Amino acid sequence: MIFFCLLMVVMISYGTFTTIALQGGINTSPAPAVGVSNNAVVQMALSMARHLHCQPDPKPGLDCNDPRLGIALDAWYDNGFPPEVIQWAAIHCPGCAAWENGNFQCVVFVIASYIHVKPLPIVSENANQFWALFAHQPGWIESQQPLPGDIMTWAGGPFGHVSIVVAVDVHSITFAQANAQLPVQTLPRNPDGTVNTHNGYWDTFTVQGYIRPAA
Fold first, then answer.
1. Mean pLDDT, the chain, integer
2. Is the domain 10-213 a CATH 3.90.1720.10 member?
3. Distance (Å) of CA 146 to CA 38, 83, 152, 169
4. Which of 20, 68, 177, 200 is most buried by a 10 A CB count?
5. β-bridge partners, 123
């Protein structure tokens, strides 16, 4: 199983501004306000997930569960996909393959989930580099206790994976994502709180932990 979570955007935060390198040019724009409820992240993630598919024109009742697809990835979006995400990508990363329909990546899904909350300090990292990167980022917290709105980081495969926690209790965790098995998925939690990834798809992956803004 290979997740192509390569990121074609360079983003660096400086104080109250976000500077983004765009294929040879530099754009500077005000950063979104910090401290918005995690609910905003959850709602954006779900608004994207509702319009993600594993094929460009799914038949009624057949999408990511279509047996003809084999291993499918939800990297296609339909006409109901949030226009602000498409507009954001067009401004901040025009022509970047990772944001394109049919190739929508897990990393850009997470970036898009936070566009109204807080810019992510991503500098071309793949998903499997998030955990080490955020350990040294002021204003961010890493935890083993998930909350809705958290970035859920996964180790496994060539590039790892990232998703957004949308619901959690002692028995299970539900997360939204792109370029993976399903747009919204639930896995059981073990008695120690870790995620049981042995569902036949995520077997070679482990959840490293959860990342959230400090305020």
1. 83
2. yes
3. 12, 29, 8, 9
4. 177
5. 10
